[in-house]
Structures are given as structure tokens and as C-alpha cells.
Amino acid sequence: MLYNNLSGYFRKKYGRRLGKICIDGGFSCPNRDGTCGFGGCIFCGERGAGEHIDATLSIKEQVASALQNASPDEKFVAYFQNFTNTYADVATLKERYDAALTDERIAVLAIGTRPDCIDEEKAELIASYREGREVWVELGLQSASDKTAKIINRGYKTEVFEKACRILNSAGVKVVAHVIIGLPDEGMEEVKKTVDFLTRLPIWGLKIHSIYVMEGTRLADMYERGEYTPPSLEEYTEAAVYVLSHVPKDVVIHRLTGDCPKDMLLAPEWNADKHAVIDAVNKKMKERGLSQGSLYAFR
Ligand code: SF4
Fold it and tell me: Tens digits of per-residue pLDDT, 68-84?
């Protein structure tokens, strides 16, 4: 096995693949409304990810629509995807999470958020959903470099990620870290530092995104002005192989590519073919005799 991927994890735990229901929970983002910043992260679109979700539907309707043709023995992940899904008071969070968990075929509650929107009270609420299902929180890190954080307008320092990660871990909630390869002004040096940072934290899962320039973002403006050039496929695979071979074997790899809607992708072209990207990473791992964690030095 080259790496411990999510579908393998699901097969082992549930004996099957799990479908994903992507939910727009009606949240905003403090990095857009002025609480900690305006305009959002430079790569983030107007919908805060999840461009394909019909946000005119209520949470219950989104779930019902995703399940309408599902068989009784299928299982699903309810994934709160758009914007910052812990950016509200605890009562509101409870109401919205409860609305998504009305069907017993939902085996996993996954919540995407920013680390500066996690505290002990929210972690406790999220932990309470572990009864009868699996729960994890997905935290956007992107890079461990505070210099990059400024360039991408992330709006929080890297130490905030560490704090949130530890709060969630203490509450018994699993953490999935998101990183992006190919951010402006980043090369292998920054990728190595990000891996070094993450491998010192109690991370359960990892999403590795290949950067993409999406229409309507500030990154798109930078790209069009010639201020940003995305990495080549070769550069991306080199970095991805480094990440995979240096993270512990038990970290579950949730993603290895970026996922830009094809009609909104400006660059790089190779990002449109997810399978080709994954094949290129796998090929490089095999050629070098590497597997996940094979170069991880336990600290
Ligand atoms: S924190 Fe997330 S939702 Fe907010 S601007 Fe950044 S990427 Fe978009």
C-alpha cells in the first residue's frame, strides 16, 4: 500500500465506500465579514468552496435530496463544507448539525472550519456527536509559514492552528489538516516546514490540495497580472511525494488533488484531470520505492 487513503480506511471500518453529502450550512467567514479580515483567502471563491451545492435548500433538504436515490444499506459522510462551519454560537451550531443528522445512514459528521473559530465549548458540542457516529473537524492550515499566511490573507497565525488542534484532540475530536501545495512564494523549503509542523501535532487525517487558480478569486487577479505562476505537475508531484513519505503511516490521506469546478479553472491545466495527478504521484512513489511514512523520523 502506497498510502493510507480514506477509501481504504472506510473499507476497513465500514466494509464499503461511503458517499459524501456536501452541505452549505448557511455560515459566513470571519475572514470575509471584517471580523478578522475582508475579501477572504486569496484562493477562495465567492461560495467558500462547495460551488456545486444548492444553497437555496435548507440543510434538511440538502441531505434529503442527496439521499433520495440511496439504498437502505448505503452509508454517508455529512460534510459541512462551505465557509466556516463553527462560526456561530453553540446553540446555532447545534441546531444546524442536528438538521443534517436526521438519517441513520449518515455514519460520519465532518465539519470544515478555521482554527480561530474553535474553542473548548464548541469542541465539547462537536464531541457530543460521537455517540452513534464518527466525527471529525477539518482545519484549514494551507501552510505553516506565517509569511505565506500574510500573502494568502489567511487571517490567523500558525500557532492558532496548533491551539485548535490540541483543544479538539483533548475533547476527543479527530482533526483533518488541509494543506495547499503551490502557494505564492512557496517552494520545497516551505513544504518541508509545513510537514515538520504537522508531524508534531495530533493530526488524524490530511487533505493535500494542489493549488488551482479559480475565476473570481484574488489569486486569479494575481495570475492575470503575471504576479503568480502555478506549479507544474512535476513540481506538484515532487512536493506531494515528499509530504506522503514524511507523514506518519497512520495519518489518513483524504485527498491528493485540488477540486476546482472545470468551468471556473484558469490554471494550471493539469489540475482538471484528478486521475492523472494521482497516477503521477503514485508512479513517482513506486519508482523511488517510497510509501507513506517511509521517511518519517519519529520524534
Ligand atoms: S477561511 Fe475558508 S471560507 Fe474563509 S476565506 Fe479562507 S478559505 Fe474562504
Answer: 999 999 999 999 999 99
Locate the domains of the chain by residue range.
6-287
| For ligand 1, atom 3: residue with the closest CA | 83
CA distance 207 to 255: 5
b/e 217-246 (16+ beta carbons within 10 angstroms → b): bbbbebbeeeebebbebebbbbbbbbbbbb
pLDDT one-digit tens code per residue, 248-262: 999 999 999 998 999
Distance 51 CA to ligand 1 centre (A): 13
> Which residues of the chain have a pLDDT value below 70?
47-51, 298-299
Question: How far apart, in Å, are the Cα atoms of 132 and each of 101, 104, 106, 127, 129?
Answer: 11, 9, 10, 11, 7
User: Which ligand 1 atom minimizes the distance to the CA of 45?
Assistant: 8
Could you tell me which of 119, 204, 127 has the C-alpha nearest to residue 173? 127
Give the residue carrying C-alpha cell 482545519: 139
State the chain's maximal CA–CA distance in angstroms.
Answer: 52
Quickly name the fold that domain 6-287 has: TIM Barrel (3.20.20)
* Ligand 1 atom having least distance to the Cα of 43: 7
Q: What is the Å distance from ligand 1's center to 157 Cα? A: 14
Q: Tell me the pTM.
A: 0.97
